[in-house]
Amino acid sequence: MLEIKNLHARIAEDGTEIIRGLDLTVKAGEVAAIMGPNGSGKSTLSYILSGREDYEVTEGDILYNGESILELDPSERAAKGIFLAFQYPVEIPGVATMQFLKVAMNEQRKYRGEDELTTPEFMRRVKEAAAELKIAPEMLRRPLNVGFSGGEKKRAEILQMALLEPKLCVLDETDSGLDIDALKVVADGVNALRSPDRAVVVITHYQRLLDYIVPDTVHVLYKGQIIKSGDKTLAHELEAKGYADIIEAAA
Amino acid sequence: MNMQQAIKMTAAETALVDAYGAQIGDLPGDGAVLSLRDTLVHELRTAGLPTRRIESWHYTDLRTLLRDVPAADPSAFADRVEAIVPGSSVLSVRNGQADLKSVPEGIKARSYTDSLVDGSAAAGLAILGADDAIGRINGGLVRGGLEIAIAEGAEFAAPIEIQVVQSHGQAHTRFPVSFGAGSKATVIERHVSTSAEASFVSTVSDVTLGEGADVIWIVVQQQGPADTHLGQIRFDLAKDAKLHIFVINAGGKLVRQELHGRASGEGADLTLRGINLLGGESHTDVTFTLTHAVPHTTSSEIIRNVIFDRARGVFQGKILVAKDAQKTDAKMACNTLLLSDEADMSAKPELEIFADDVQCGHGATVADIDHTQLFYMLARGIPEKKARAMLVNAFVAEIVEELEDDEALVEALEGVISAWLEKHA
Ligand SMILES: Nc1ncnc2c1ncn2[C@@H]1O[C@H](COP(=O)(O)OP(=O)(O)O)[C@@H](O)[C@H]1O
Ligand SMILES: [Mg+2]
């Protein structure tokens, strides 16, 4: 489903290279975890997948279902089914959460040539998904992410993911700032979306989340490259010994 | 502005003076009114329109910006339009003629033309100072309007809409409106153009609030793309009076909206909210002065400007706190979204404080669309054009929502904004 080949990317503004020859393949149905110390380029990778224009791809390619997405803008990538749960969800005062959800869902449907949702159908879906994620209706009446606690913001990201039904889900440190109960709610939400035609990329630097969302593959990202890949035991190894050994072994 | 010898008049100055000349004998007024008109037009003729050398017109050089003035056309006729908030009582002025068909209970309304004819309007025609170009033009040429008195303690279920509809030519209107003690009302002053042909509009509203009156005064300016709109609101607030002025400029090529007021009674409170939507080559100026004259008065001003293309915005805000006006609380902010490299905004917020125990502040910001917010919306599949429109809308929607007590009103104002954005963004 996702094939990243020898990807090099830099910050557009000052030319600093952040991703330095990264290779990664994630198959449909797979849950892949990307781990790595702070500053290794995990969020940058997620932004590049989404098409953020602050970064410039200088070499290599990203294939999604066999086709390069480098020329697509972020909204097209989203409509094609790529979803990023942000590490830091963005507050947008003046835009009501419900309005935002409805516009996002319907714009994606329009792009794919599907009919727009009727208001009752939209309301039904939101209510159902919000209840699953223990999101109070009161929260949905506020402007998008404004006044949400850290945990509420993360749950709201998963709500959006559940409603938009993407094919490739990228979760950037969705676990940070969550207590254990909230973590379980979020993990349940993600697990509910697991399916043979969907892939999930879980970015984290703690093993904790992976107890609840059990990955098929684990990849260590360091200085813009995948330096080691393995199965879920690699995450346990990292937890026990830290990154130092792996980094040394790769050097 | 005392000039020895007549200046060489611009085309616009000539057109205004000629409009007066052409209507002499036809302009309503008793002896006092007519001689006042004559003085005002004489001043216009000798001093000319204000230039950037006049401080209060520094950012709006009217003499240069006002290229021409369409001739007054007595046959210009426009129908009433639907009230912006369904169910409002509409009092309209068309082509200078007041239409008093639907005056609700609790209101005394008469045609301002009658007040000119019987001379009772004379005192109100005085200009606010030598640089009051709007008062001068309007005083010289005003033909009609409405004089409205709201009874003590009156309350209304629906807004009162004062409608000035113009197809082309000139309109010069006045609206002296007094709110009795303890009355509560929402007035919508609406300026609409029904054609793309040029109009020149001057209008002065003179708003006085009695003790404890609670008033929302909305100005919806939707002139056409070739129009000039010179508006002025004068207001005075008695003890415990509360006035929320909301101005939305969503039209016009050359617009100056002045607001000049005074908190005269303790406990008086003024809220000013302004939304200026500018595009094309338009120029829109909002100029505000407020005197906190007595202790314990409050005011809050927020102006939001959205500027596209090569449009220019101006905000001048001056709050004066008199020596005795202790415990004044005044906050003023002007925030601008500049959406093109060629768009321009000049903001000049000023405080002049003569009392020592006050809380006053002001600030001005200019920014582009927040790129992080934009990316977030795109990443959810919202196309860029739509996402930008939503963010621009969000920037101004916040201050419309403050009127949430009246849902129909909020909806109407949001409608004005989204209609404008759909056309321009
Ligand atoms: N837009 C940017 N401007 C400046 N520096 C950036 C930008 N994006 C990423 N970086 C830098 O790139 C490196 C990787 O950052 P990031 O992808 O956020 O790491 P991680 O998510 O793995 O902690 C860091 O050194 C960070 O400061
Ligand atoms: Mg990160």
Automatic annotation (TrEMBL), chain A:
A GO molecular-function descriptor: ATP binding
InterPro entries membership: AAA+_ATPase (IPR003593), ABC_transporter-like_ATP-bd (IPR003439), ABC_transporter-like_CS (IPR017871), FeS-cluster_ATPase_SufC (IPR010230), P-loop_NTPase (IPR027417)
UniProtKB keywords: ATP-binding, Nucleotide-binding
Pfam families associated with the record: ABC_tran
SMART domains linked: AAA
Domain ABC transporter: 2-248
Superkingdom classification of source: Bacteria
Family: Belongs to the ABC transporter superfamily. Ycf16 family.
Protein name as it appears in the record: Fe-S cluster assembly ATPase SufC
Natural source organism: Sinorhizobium saheli
Lineage, uppermost ranks: Bacteria, Pseudomonadati, Pseudomonadota, Alphaproteobacteria, Hyphomicrobiales
TrEMBL record, chain B:
Annotated ranges, domain SUF system FeS cluster assembly SufBD core: 169-395
GO biological process, one term: iron-sulfur cluster assembly
Database matches in InterPro entries: Fe-S_cluster_assembly_SufBD, SUF_FeS_clus_asmbl_SufBD_core, SUF_FeS_clus_asmbl_SufBD_sf, SUF_FeS_clus_asmbl_SufD
A Pfam family: SUFBD_core
Gene Ontology MF: a single term: ATP binding
Domain of life from the UniProt record: Bacteria
This protein's name: ABC transporter ATP-binding protein
